[in-house]
Amino acid sequence: MNDINRICSKLSNSEIVILPSDTLYGIAANAYDKIAVEKVFAIKQRPDTKKLPIHYSSLEQASKDIIINDVIKKLAKKFMPGALTIIANQKSDSKLLIDGTVGFRIPKHNTLLEIIRKLNIPITMPSANIHNQAPLMEFAKIQEILKLDGIEDDSSICKIPSTIVDATGKNISLIREGAISFHEIQLVLNN
Length: 191
Fold this sequence. Notes:
The chain is an alpha+beta fold. 32% of the residues lie in helices and 16% in strands. Helix 1 packs across helix 5. The radius of gyration is 16 Å and the shape is globular.
């Protein structure tokens, strides 16, 4: 069984795994699976008041859960797939285990995108670390600390988290500057 099939099988069975992205390694789980999502919170020791980011394979897939406005379309056209997380309003009929708003992104990482496409579900994937500790950058170290199966790809990790912007209101606001500068984002929106 190849890595992708093995990981898809685990994610389909409420298991969590370590996956690489274009930014950092993450603790991945089926975003629609309550048991799996609870495991992510437990392993990260993350307060359940702090929402988990959701990864999609396309804007079309994200539109099943998220209200895609003109600002999001413009940002997605320029920066997705890529290192941008957008906080958006959630649709009322979404199956996500989150209320209200959702931080989502489309990662620029072929293996991760293939897994999301193959499963045909979004994946929640916060950085691979204990809450309030620095993200871990090497797969071997992550396995040693978190004791989880996954896919190793240290070379794809840029070691800078995604930039997070809030697009839920009339004006976009910066939550965290990461791999994409807020200046670049403003330039796109002002053109």
